[in-house]
């Protein structure tokens, strides 16, 4: 068995500070806080949370790897999709939310440059100060001639833009509530302290959470047994609607791991979808090393579609990552990136397998598009349309 290197002194001190802050919150809450609050602090508390403090997070030596980190093919295909929309808008900018290391920004901009469709501006909304810094350095080094088009925002734009908005693996980082279904009601699973350690502690769910769970239960493909546990993301729809308000004409592309609601809340998925990432391992205990590990839950794509429709967008496409990339010609992009270099082609072919195979990212990850004022069909959704499953 592989033994894990111990935490560094800085890591130990950091997680102890986050833990102490959480303990104070729990004491202030009378011995209990919701899991949504726990996740919010563990990920976003200023100077402490996983995304607000300086944990390494992404890529080589980080905690997890995303599609843009696996291969430039992802960004090349996304760029083709952006180009279709930008041409129809006759200009416009790109807004990327949660840009990670900046890899997707670099790959999208350089492919658009080659296609002759560079956006007027490339805006990045990023909550993590250290990721902003990594993005700035990567973009300046990789694309010095385009770096002055890139601007970082502190909040969503107040005036609507004509734009393409991109968000890869951002929705899964929104804090979720956890619930346990009973035949005669619903409990909320929150966090308390037992023998000086964080522990799940249940309370009767509020009327709002109970009503939300009843809606989810009625959408599921079968009846839940008593004891069924899952998550619900109360912030998803308000946040996605706020994103919608920042767009005049254009498209929003959401990429993430997730499912349509009937499948997400399938009776067999009775322990929910909550996961943690630390040092490239998937862990199940969100109470371990708070502030050092990512905490995520799968995305209910029916909720994403509902938010788009409520904001007067068309849900223009929903498909798996594999079919999205195939529709945009990932095979052609491989040839174009590799040129005559056969070793490079073989490397890209390996990367493509990770992006496309069902056992890797191909099926778990989905792509959804919302559009407003865009008439043309989007190539990413031309080969497979899963909207009827939402
Ligand atoms: C899982 S990482 C994905 C990074 C990148 N999109 C990629 O695919 O490599 C989540 C990203 O979203 C950012 N983030 C999380 N919550 C956010 C929010 N509410 N607003 C903007 N960015 C956010 C994180 O700092 C990080 O850059």
Q: How are the SSEs placed, and which strands pair?
A:
Layout: H1 9-28, E1 33-34, H2 35-44, H3 67-70, H4 72-89, E2 93-97, H5 103-115, E3 122-125, H6 129-142, E4 150-153, E5 161-168, E6 177-182, E7 185-194, E8 197-204, H7 207-219, E9 229-232, H8 236-245, E10 247-259, H9 261-264, E11 275-278, E12 281-283, E13 294-296, E14 299-300, H10 301-310, E15 314-320, H11 321-327, H12 330-338, H13 342-356, E16 365-372
Parallel strand pairs: 2-3, 2-5, 3-4, 5-10, 10-14
Antiparallel strand pairs: 1-7, 6-7, 6-9, 7-8, 10-16, 11-12, 11-13, 15-16
Helix pairs in contact: 4-5, 4-12, 8-10, 12-13
Q: List bound small molecules.
A: S-adenosylmethionine
Helix and strand content put the structural class at alpha/beta
Number of helical regions? 13
Report the sheet with the most strands, covering strand number, pairing sense and barrel closure: 8 strands, mixed
- Write down the overall mean pLDDT: 94
Integer-rounded radius of gyration:
21 Å
The unreliable regions are none
Shape field = globular
The count of DSSP E runs of length 2 or more, i.e. the number of strands, is: 16
Written as H for each helix and E for each strand, in order along the chain, the element string is: HEHHHEHEHEEEEEHEHEHEEEEHEHHHE
**What percentage of amino acids are in beta strands?**
15-25%
CA(first)-CA(last) distance: 42 Å
- Kindly state the percentage of residues in helix: 25-40%
